[in-house]
């Protein structure tokens, strides 16, 4: 099957040429008397489109963060009358202490099983470089956060929002008027869901009517008891006893 139209769109995007706008009711294909519209195709591949949109956001955010950081350093360096390189050396490099022997030993001990019998002395220079790079990155991020407060910085980029319906599922807490709604997709046999339950309960206890919790069953195929449990929960819900059963 020929893929040239996709390539053409990619090239156009790379060159800054916007692709032709396609409305939701535009016909993308016909099969006999059957017409296939864009909205139908988008609905079918919605998960893939959401994944692509998230990847796009992450790429934009990464690029934006780099540009913002560079500009903050540039403006601060100009204000101090130094070069950006000198500023980073003074505020990042010079403020990161050298890794201590206990720090190096801890990294070695924590990863000893994966080091293939290499000794501490063999790996010490690499461990020191790793720890120093890690601390430098932490200090640089802290410095950038300091500069954001000094040089007023606003970011309009927002992550994609995926609307999730409550679909009439059982809820408790503040009700539909609560300022925050938590929709929990959970599995009665999932150990991680069980581990999160205490945190969810703490949120409800702390914020009371400010939070509405909606529970939606999401039984995973590898948990044989999850679906029967969710079916029983639905039966309990019909009798007004969902949360007691839950």
Query: What distance separates the N and C termini?
Result: 51 Å
Biggest sheet statistics: 3 strands, mixed
Helix fraction by DSSP (H/I, runs of at least 4): 55-70%
Please tally the helical runs, counting DSSP H or I stretches of 4 or more residues: 9
Whole-number average pLDDT? 90
Q: Strand arrangement, largest sheet?
A: 3-5-4
Helix-strand makeup class: mainly alpha
Pattern of helices and strands: HEEHHHHHEEHEHH
Structure summary, number of beta strands: 5
Report the principal-axis shape.
extended
Range of strand content:
5-15%
Regions with little confidence, pLDDT below 50 for 5+ residues: 1-17
Radius of gyration: 27 Å
Question: What would a concise description of this structure say?
Answer:
This protein is about 55% helix and about 10% strand.
Model description:
This protein is mainly alpha-helical and 246 residues long. Helices cover 55% and strands 11% of the residues. The protein is built from 9 helices and 5 strands, in the order αββαααααββαβαα. The strands form 2 sheets. Strands 3-5-4 form a 3-stranded mixed beta sheet, covered by helices on one side. A hairpin with a 2-residue loop joins strand 1 (27-31) and strand 2 (34-37). The longest helix has 35 residues, at 46-80. The radius of gyration is 27 Å and the shape is extended. The two termini are 51 Å apart.
